[in-house]
Each structure stands twice: as C-alpha cells, then as structure tokens.
Write a structure and sequence with these properties.
136 residues, mainly beta, 5-stranded antiparallel beta sheet, 10 strands, 29% strand, globular
Amino acid sequence: MSAYSGLSPIDCKDIQNTFTQSGLLVKYNAAGIMITTAKADVPIGVTIDESSRDAAGALEAAGTGTVSIIPLGGVQYIRCVGGGAMKTGESLYVDDANDGFVHTTATGAKFVGYYMGEDGITPASGDLIPVLCRSA
C-alpha cells in the first residue's frame, strides 16, 4: 500500500537483495539497489512491492530479479520498528537493527522524514506508517 505521490515508479533491474515486501527503504550501491542496513545509509527510495518472481512463483534472487521503487518524496508508507505511541510530526530515522525500516531514535541515524498519521497510534513492528519524506 503506497500512497500516490505524483512520482513515477522506477523499475530497478540490478538488485542486491531479495525484497520480500513493500515499504522497505532502499539505498544506492554500485553493484545495485540494496535494503538500508545501517543508520548511516542514505535512503533513495521505498519499495512499492516485493521483488519479481520466477516461473515457479519463487522470489528471484539478487542479481537476477527486479524491484519497483518510488523515490523519497511526498508521503510514502514505510515499515516501522514499532514500540511506543506515535505523534503526528515525529521525526523518523533509518533503523540499523531491522533492515529497510524506520524508527524514532536519532542516535546518529540518517533522517528520513516525519510521521504523518493519527496521534497516539502504537504500530507493531513491520507495520506500514505514513511518512512525509525528506531527501538526503
């Protein structure tokens, strides 16, 4: 579930991970698009679906599959770590413990954007939340 932001999806043909779901932050790598894995990673987009599948229906492996992403901009639905109640406008950062997720603790992590959902909601880990994205 990704809100239409007026941005066109990009089909990434050279991926370095198998993407199992939508809403994951991705970063540039010279070898191909990858999931963010460290708080210093600079996200460039968010997956809008899982990776491509082969004829047998299995997710294609890194190096052979493709994934569609939306550039970071506007409001995007991104997977979150979960935890406490969210406040509208709360700052969100790249998480380094849950690949491709965002969390509310800065600790030197790259800023992604602001929570744009209902006040007081307590999302579970892996839930999609609306984030007003700011490019790096």
